[in-house]
Records
---
Amino acid sequence: MMVTKEPAWHKPVLIAPLITFRIVFGLLMFVSLLRFVWRGWVSTVYIQPSFHFTYMGFGWVRPLGAFGMYVLFGIIILSTLFITIGLFYRIAAIVFFLGFTYVELIDVTTYLNHYYFISLVAFIMIWLPANRDYSVDVWLQPCNKRNLVPAWTIRVLQFQLAVVYIFAGLAKLNPDWLMHAQPMKTWLPACSYLPVVGQYMYQEWVAYLFSWFGAVYDCLIVFFLLNKRTRPFAYVVVLIFHIATAIFFPGIGLFPYVMIVASLIFFSGQFHTRLLSFLPFYRHQHLSLQQSVFEFRYNKVVTAALAIYIFFQVAIPLRFLFYPGHLFWGEEGYRFSWRVMLMEKAGTAYFTVKDSSHTRYVSIDNAAYLTPLQEKMMSTQPDMILKYAHYLYKQFEQKGWQKPEVYAEVYVALNGSRSCLFIDSTVNLAGQPISWRHYNWILPYKQQ
Amino acid sequence: MKKYRLVIAVVFAGLFLYACNKDKGGGATSSNDTFKKNMLINYADTLIIPAYSDMLSRLELLDMSSDSFQANPSLATQAALKEAFKNAYISFEGISALYFGPAAAQQLNNSLNIFPAGTSKIEAGIQSGSYDFTLLVASDTIQGFPALDYLFFSADAIQKFNDVDAASRKTYVKAIITRMKLIVSNTVAQWNNGYRDNFVNSLKTNIGSSIGNLVNQFAFEMDALKGPRIGYPLGKQSNGIIFADKCEAYFSGITKDVAIANLTSLKKYYTGGNGKGIDDYLNLLGKPQLNIDVLTQFDVALGALQAIPDPMSSAFSGSTATVEAAYREVQKLLTLIKTDVASATAVQITYMDNDGD
């Protein structure tokens, strides 16, 4: 056999981390989706609303009606179990990715960074040989069993986590977070109900401690997880940090658990092999190296695809640099950038629809068109304000109004500052295009 | 490999601690936030429960006045009835903002004060003798204060109660008042039997918590003052075409009194009366200026309401600018409560997960 120098990311490594990842990811998704259904959110979020804030370019993604939505959720939940046990893994991963992403694309209102993370991981998992050991697939077809996989299959997941942490950390390096301990100063007093620690929640230094610890943690944790010597201690910090966030901010849902589970990918193949050996039927066989290496057929394509993926993962969170204005205020380029628990923002929006001659006008009761959650989210995010304005335009055009004009008087408070006028209330929003360009009707942020 | 044992041990220790913590999360016996607890005790014992008791006694008086009016329908008995009606309606404005917990379970506001009254449905019900006040939505507009307002004080009310077939009308009125008393006494009973303790021990700010309920209901109530109470009759939903008869307490003509009572009671709930209230909470949170501005805006809005000439139903068209000014001031107050106060107190409006943006 010819000895060719393989690049480091194609070097074979133990498959075990992928196996653990497949199992815990599948199980966590199973619990997460079941919880979503159990809490009645399928109905409140995807069935009851008459209007949805769609993503640009994904206007065709519509909810499927009550029956359709529950069937879709049923299929996605089923796919998580198939992923976990590794049966028809590739198909299950594709179904999960498409199904989950479809659901998330229905409404911007429910955008969460960790849902985006899940979609990305699901996409990556389609391409990974995570079913090549300890799965029903290899039990059915033992010849497919592999011991080793190219290093990049594990590195790409580590990369994804690194992107999450580091961008989340960089986002925290701003004056509000570091100098004013906002939004922690606003949120922590709400945690005064907690036993033992509750009494400290009004103390300013606690808010600063949380802010600075959070920023340092997010910026550096990946490096300590990558280093073999510091890894076990780093993981203890991961646990403490995320369990703390789950206790202090129960509203963030399953995000802490997603990160706790996903961070396991930093552990070595030997660690995961040992971990898996606690499970029934797990056999770590040393087959001859030659036959047990999983190989991709088109390594050049893989390398190119990885390069493109990495480029976009780094570029997307940085796209905000191309927009003028205060990022937290205008939120242009805010989503898909790992800005988690970063600001306290609240708003109130009063819409008025006028016909072109200004002889007819109506003050809009938002509750008649939006759910409370939709209204809350819309009131602080310019692109949602614009979409809602366009929707109102259509509603009134259908009622027979001549070229309805839509105006919005919106007041927003950010990170403990006092509310002030958010967008130009004299601009007819119905005439403003939805686009990636900067919305010049957003008023500049007044630093207080 | 020792290190990994450590990791696994910490995993389980962490999960165990977390599980323990979760168990205790709901109750607040373990917490020692005496400020919040004292504030909520103040709300429950000196404002809320007394407000319900007042409502109940006002309804008793209204019932009695109603009886004497029906025994002898005349201008004199109607005037006496109007006094009792006004007192009861004003008392209701003092509990309107408490539409959570027992009141929500009893559908209190939906049964007592959905206006404008469905006058033709009411007449049809009296005619046929078949009506069911317990139907949600469908029967909201045929009962409560708006229905009584119409039945007692519409133009030919006295004559209708003197008619030969007035018996069915009297039965209808009795049924309404009986139901109002029942709903309020059920609500009071629930507050006294357990809910009060839940209320004062709920120290979170999420949806369904006491502070969450109070702040969210302030905003809701102020929205109702801006919309149904002032904005809709003023034509804000109808191209500026005024629908004076859509206003609250239209027939008795006490629209302005109840609007002022509504906002006055909101201010009282904001300040916590003489005890600890949201105002003190904002000071504790380091927001004294916001508190001052909210208090000032309360007074500005109340002043703007008081400037409206009586009866307010005529003012919608007669002095539109004055009503419009009051509308603007109420909207400013609503913005402060819904945006700044809700944000400062970290009150949540839904159960949904969020990542804080």
Note: The two ends of chain A are 70 Å apart (CA to CA).
---
Amino acid sequence: MSTETWTLIIVGLTFAFYLYVGYLNRVRETAGFYVAGRGVPAIANGAATAADWMSGASFVSMAGLISFLGYDGAVYLMGWTGGYVLLALLLAPYLRKYGKYTVPDFIGDRYYSHTARAVAAIATIFISLTYVAGQMRAVGIVFSRFLQVNIVTGVIIGMAIVAFFAVLGGMKGITWTQVAQYVVLISAYLITTISIAWVLTGNPIPQLAFTFSDFAVRLNQIQVDLGLKEYIRPFQNFSLINVFFITLALMIGTAGLPHVIIRFYTVPRVSDARISAGWALLFIALLYTSAPALAVFAKYNLINTLHGKTRAEIEQIDWAVKWEQTGLLKFEDKNGNGVLEMTADKATNEITIDRDIIVLSTPEVARLAPWVVGLVAAGGLAAALSTAAGLLLAMSSAVSHDVYYRIWKPDATESERLMVGRVMIFVAILVAGYFGVRPPGFVAEVVAFAFGLAAASLFPAIFLGIFDRRMNREGATAGILVGLFFTLIMIVLMRSNRLLGTEAPIIASFLGINAQGIGVVGAILNFIVSYAVSRATPPPPQEIQDLVEEIRVPRGALAPVAEH
Amino acid sequence: MDGERNNRNSKAVAYWKANLKAIAILLAIWALVSYGGAILLAAPLYNLRFGQIPLSFWFAQQGSMITFVILIFVYSWWMNKIDREYDVHEE
């Protein structure tokens, strides 16, 4: 059977399975809709969190990104995993003890303020929306690349699938579908990576093959010989200060992302929240520690196979011909010497490798069976759909729970709330789909926003709400606003060439820190302003201080907090 | 009555202190492997080998992540132990 047939069969089967799982887990009450009835076992929540976290971009592009950044690609590896340590130690167990539905819930109650609640809701919606647009796009791209349908059709199919289990099952449907999607995506990734590690090094365990074979050193030498940057030497692509700040911004941002935080409301107990963060990171690390191995092996293999060949020799390699047709691989004999050569200079380089090809082409390059290609397509789709679903829920619950129920209509009945929840998630899917079909030209820029804003606004507010009993409404609100606006303005100024259409960025960096790392400065400002303002204004009411005492201790039910 | 309340408060304070100590120790390791091993000490550790690759490169692309996973499982085990010692664990 052909690759396309296999892809169609495997993608079709996995989609049918997701729909079945979603149908089994449909819900009828709000606790089921928002927090899966708090009945998700710790290990299942870990797998769901991992699928929620790892996006279509993580699956398709990350190994490629690392293969181009070499050592400095560590900002993404450490940044996107280290945040879970912060989440597990500083936020997750306490938020589970507090036990409501959303992030704005906690911020609004803890700071006894609808202003704080509304600001947190707006931050949640903005962060999730910028993120989800990219996911829908990824769904469209995977469809068009593997199944030869156009991107719009791909986005619409993806929207229909997500709409089915998200509207019907809310958090419960999404959680169990994500568990299934994790299994699909990790199988696809590991089969691919293990195969290429085995073929090249004879060691089937990618993490060991990476460390105990000399392929990283050999790739480094090849890059030096070609005049490219050294692969295994630090700070070739980012300065030390930028590696430091980008890593920290991604870590703090990860810990402050609402769609990840709300997953820890779904487990039964505080101790489950702790261990489930461990399972989540273990499941994530399976892919994230494989990615740098795949990056080295695939890049070594591509350069080794293609560099210095003649046009006729390239045409003998069937995968090279196929990927050239997609535009992800480009050959051009610029100096007309009959041989295709890679160089460091764009003007003379004759082989252009798109970073996405590192993952997508590996099954064929490593001569794996056609069904593996189909599995990789299904894995990419699983990664994109599971992340989109989690983001859509975070976004719609900020509107339907925090804005509609907590602020606007506190006497809404259970069935009204559930209805509004379903309608909002449907609206969110339509909005996300629109951005998937017509992506704003600056998708890459807005991802810096999502992490920067989460780091500068939500993380400090939640952290101080737990660890500083004296923190009050005035301090937290001032801190969030300063962090938010500082980060927003800095990113706009540093990316003004893309966002405002200026010729060059208005400022190049802030004390040497670029747009991706600026969230750290926003977070520090948030902490300083919160502390100063809170100490100059009255302490929070006694009932709030009691609430802080209670969420610090695992045992016991929480006393109800008066609604303000 | 007051005595019992003070007793309960001092126990809660001691529990919180034990909790903060665990967090501080684990976060120190978290910072050491990533910001230390892979970033601030990247240049000196580059000259040491782990397997066939420089030690700082291993921390940057493998070691930090492996340590992070272990840290969370240790935290979970440690906190459950502290919970029981101070009798605040869940039923």
Note: Strands of chain B lie at 49-50, 53-54.
